[in-house]
């Protein structure tokens, strides 16, 4: 978070302050593991698009993603080991898998998106998808 404070001109006394804060886009809240690796699993969705982008910060760590079926079994080609790791600090980094590219082959199917974070902050996930509340177990938070 950046902020600035205007100092009064010389000879004038300060009677207050006005601060201006700037947050990164979608940067008000984030998920971050306390130490080592952390894992996040999203609810089941049905994608309308294959493009998934994330807002993350991992200058010294990395972010991996996996797409699983509704029961948590990794879909072949979309496992953590198939994911191209993300490092750095980006507002809209595309998720990619080595052999599959994006998630276009999964449009219309019921899937879950999972993340593994190492020394990383996950701010936002963008994927055009509808939530699915079908016959699968519903998680409680």
Keywords:
five-stranded antiparallel β-sheet, 7 strands, mainly beta, 141 residues
Derived from helix and strand composition plus strand pairing, the structural class reads mainly beta
Largest sheet: 5 strands, antiparallel
CATH architecture: Sandwich
Question: Radius of gyration, rounded?
Answer: 20 Å
Mean pLDDT equals 88
The stretches of 5 or more residues where confidence is low (pLDDT under 50) are none
The top-level CATH class is Mainly Beta
| Structural domains: how many | 1
- Tell me, briefly, the overall form: elongated
Helix content: under 10%
Short description:
The chain is 0% helix and 45% strand. It has 141 residues and is an all-beta fold. It is elongated and about 70 Å long.
Description of the structure:
- The protein has 141 residues and is mainly beta.
- The protein has one domain: Jelly Rolls, CATH 2.60.120.
- Helix content is 0%, strand content 45%.
- The chain contains no helices and seven strands.
- The strands form two sheets. Strands 3, 4, 5, 6 and 7 form a five-stranded antiparallel beta sheet that branches. A two-stranded antiparallel ribbon has the order 1-2.
- It starts with a strand and ends in a 10-residue tail after the last strand.
- The mean pLDDT is 88.
